[in-house]
Amino acid sequence: MKSKTFNIKLKVLTPIHIGDGSSYDPTDYIIDKNEMHVIDHDRFIQKINSNKTLYDDFLERIKNFTPESIGLINFIREQSKGLYRYSLKLDEKALEYIENSPNEIGRAPIDKFIRNPFNDTIYIPGSSIKGALRSAIIEVIFRKLLPKEEDKCKYSDQRNELLENLIEKNSDLNKYSDKGKLLETLLTTTFKLNDAKNDILKHVLVSDFLPSEASLQICFPINKSSTKENNIPALLECAMPGSTFEGTITFK
After folding, report:
1. Does a structural domain hold residue 182?
2. Domain that holds residue 110
3. What is the pLDDT of residue 108?
4. Which residues contact 216 (CB under 8 A, 6 or more apart)?
5. Distance (Å, rounded) from C-alpha 67 to C-alpha 1?
6. Disulfide-capable partner of 43 in 83, 152, 197, 217 (CB 3.0 to 4.6 Å)?
């Protein structure tokens, strides 16, 4: 059977954030009104190097810097005004959070959307798309094959426990029913963690999806529970509704 490749165009319907652990640190940005300005550090260094007074002041602040002090951060932000690489709008909830917690956000990282290191453009990794396909298959199993089962697939440990229970409960069904045999096959071979050999999607190749038209904003994490240091919620760089990404999915 020949491989079949599909050209896919995805359109964002709700704000999405896909991160890789990198962030805008407090020395990387300035927030002014409803915008976050990303500092151009090359131009900042050029400015400091061209002025001995600023240069000496900068070195002194670095020497005396402590995590509790924001003197260096304030210096960089003050001397970087107008020296920006790009700017992003803040959504209403992010703006409200900043207005209510100005001191906290001034020292907090902002999680970046994953970016291509060569041209600094965002993209959706193929692994994220493949994960969405896997979630869709799980949805079919638990909502179509077993419509009465409660949805407990959110966490992997709970999911694995439920899979084992379902296999045991349906042992008789598996012997006499085509649906049961399908269920047994899917549950025992498809969703074992770290089992690439039996992965039902091992013959599906998904490319990274590149932006054809992308709009970014800084958003407050409404449904994201993770927090940064000192329990300060991390704002997120998000692709906004209307953004489009293109890539390919190949079935081998």
Report:
1. yes
2. 6-40+80-124+208-251
3. 75
4. 88, 113, 122, 237, 238, 239, 240
5. 60
6. 83
